[in-house]
Amino acid sequence: GSMPFYTTVRARLKDADPQSAMEAHNAVVARLRPKNTPLGGVGHRVFANVQDPQEFLALDTWESIEGLQQAFGDPETQREIGSLFDGQPEVTIWSTRDGWTTF
């Protein structure tokens, strides 16, 4: 198939308590996943800044750029994602680089 696309979502978690921040995130993912899977949203990985656990990074895998644009353009999806964060998350779209050595 075609090469996947990736999005990074980087932001500061609204909730300073790690447990309740995790529960809020997991609830949002549970609601969005059934909507985004048919759009080609096939992966979601979550990272914390080692020195600042309130700093959040997600790496999502998408089968098409059209699907990810549709997902992130959905006002309900934007509201759900935004509810987790203090301020607007920084969303970036990435593709792999052909010919570059990776491992």
Explain this structure:
35% of the residues lie in helices and 33% in strands. The model has no long low-confidence stretch (mean pLDDT 96). It has a four-stranded antiparallel beta sheet with strand order 2-3-1-4. It is α+β, with helices and mostly antiparallel strands and 103 residues long. It is built from three helices and four strands, in the order βαββααβ. It has helices spanning 18-36, 65-73, 75-82, and strands spanning 5-12, 41-49, 52-62, 90-95. The chain is globular, with a radius of gyration of 14 Å. A hairpin with a 2-residue loop joins β2 (41-49) and β3.
Helix content range: 25-40%
Radius of gyration: 14 Å
Q: Got a strand count?
A: 4
Low-confidence parts lasting 5 or more residues at pLDDT below 50?
A: none
What is the count of helical runs?
Answer: 3
Question: For the report, how would you describe the main beta sheet?
Answer: 4 strands, antiparallel
The separation of the N and C termini measures 20 Å
Please list the strands of the largest sheet in the order they lie side by side. 2-3-1-4
**Overall shape:** globular
Query: What integer is the average pLDDT?
Result: 96
- Structural class by SSE content: alpha+beta
In N-to-C order, the SSE pattern is EHEEHHE
Measured by DSSP, the beta-strand proportion falls in 25-35%
